[in-house]
Amino acid sequence: MKDKAQIFTLDMLFALLLVAALVAASTQAYEIAAKQNRSYSTRYSLERTVNDASEALIKTSGLPQSWRENDNFVNIETPGLAEEGPSGTSIFNALSMRKFESLRMLTMEDNWTNYTDSADSVKELFGGSSKFEIRLIDENTGENIWRPIYPKWDVKSSPGYENSLEVATVKRLVDIREVERENSIENLMHISGPPGIYRFKFRVDSGDLTNRDWYLVVKRHPPGTPQPEVRIWVNKEIQAAASGWDWRMPPDKSPFSMWWHGAGQNPPENDIQVGSNYVVVWVGGRPTPYSIDVSVISLERCSPSRYVDLPPLGTVEVRMWE
């Protein structure tokens, strides 16, 4: 009887151990499944929020519509980034650089801290979170076209998503509305012989002297030395000995303002006019294999001159993380 009792006791012990092991395994499996489910839910919620935020940013012009001109950042209800059409309606996927820059300035530490109502309006786009970043990038290279936006960027070295387990990103191709490349001539060189002389035309439509600023932009490829000398005439011919230019590089520096704020500012001798205009470019000096491009760029009236370097298209990348 004692032997049978002992065997029964060992059987029960083994059974209990097996049951305990099964319970532990089941509990662990449940915890893993629950964790995966929470992770999926978090990921889905994050992706939905960042998608909705990107839609609101690039398809709405914001409220009030004049919020980009509100330098003190008071009473910003919705910071949409879309440009407005003539009737005041939003133009989908047409990015206003002024609004982009205004939003970037709002997210500076002092403004983000002091204008809490406007900061809260921005956070509402992101589900009440401050863990977001907005970039304007070149789709081909992924490089920033403009400085990125994230809360307190002026005192933080990075947005803070680098070590996050959940990161969601949405990209939207946009038309950068402030910038219009009216015409250009490229790869001008002076390798040997007499200086090269090149001409190209551009047109100013009715109203565009009032509504837009006009620049000549010279870019060197690559920006090394020695560089060719460049002389530029607008709406006039070269005079004897290639004199009488409007601008000369060096010492003058691009961009050259032909028309700004509805009037000539640092203008060519013969102001640009509604209708057909032309540019004459002289490339000479020391022969060199370096080339230059010359472009006529128009911007929305009173835009910062640094906008001339923006491409006509870009990609808005919106990122959130947990």
Concise overview:
The protein is α+β, with helices and mostly antiparallel strands. Helix content is 27%, strand content 31%.
Question: What do you see in this structure?
Answer:
By secondary structure, this protein is α+β, with helices and mostly antiparallel strands. The chain has 2 domains: 1-178, no CATH class; 179-302, PINIT domain (Jelly Rolls, Sandwich), CATH 2.60.120.780. Helix content is 27%, strand content 31%. The chain has 5 helices and 13 strands. It has helices spanning 2-59, 97-106, 109-114, 116-125, 208-211; strands spanning 82-84, 90-95, 132-137, 167-176, 179-190, 196-204, 212-221, 229-234, 247-249, 256-259, 275-284, 288-300, 313-321. The protein has a 5-stranded mixed β-sheet. Strand 1 (82-84) and strand 2 (90-95) form a beta hairpin. The protein is elongated, with a radius of gyration of 31 Å. The model has no long low-confidence stretch (mean pLDDT 84).
Main beta sheet: 5 strands, mixed
Mean pLDDT: 84
Total DSSP helices:
5
Helical percentage: 25-40%
Low-confidence stretches: none
Task: Give the N-to-C terminal Cα separation.
Answer: 65 Å
Counted up, domains total 2
Could you tell me the strand content as a percent range?
25-35%
Task: Categorize the overall geometry.
Answer: elongated
Radius of gyration: 31 Å
> Helices and strands, in N-to-C order?
HEEHHHEEEEHEEEEEEE
